[in-house]
Amino acid sequence: MNAPDTWNDKLQQPANDLPPIIIFEPKSGNLFKILVTVSWNLQKQEGFNSSKSVKNLTEQVGKETLPQAVEIELALQELKGVSSTGYYFVLTDKAPKAGEFKYLAQGGLGVGDLLLVFTILTNEKDSQVFFDMLERLRGATQQLN
Known about the structure:
The protein is built from 2 helices and 7 strands, in the order βββαββββα. With 145 residues, it is an alpha+beta fold.
């Protein structure tokens, strides 16, 4: 996934062998923040990044987040990728604090033998950044060295 020229991207490698996180932010301002966690199947679980597993994970995370949202029901959306299907939801924060984002999109998508779990934070409903990132996720591929 390549970032547009107007975005900064950096790779964060958490300690304890946790999966890496790719962070996208604007080159100036605080208009959005996008986090993409890249996970692989360490436990060799059957269907680790299958459409069904991704849907279940996304639904679970959404239901846990719903109490802080304006929305009263979770609406999962399908995300068709190059070679797989993922899911995401969009929620509005009931009471964002100063400096926090109002809109949250979260979801996941299987790519090759990886699982991409993403969070898109913005203050603008239906922002172009949201649509641009979904397009990048749809086109994501795994490159083996």
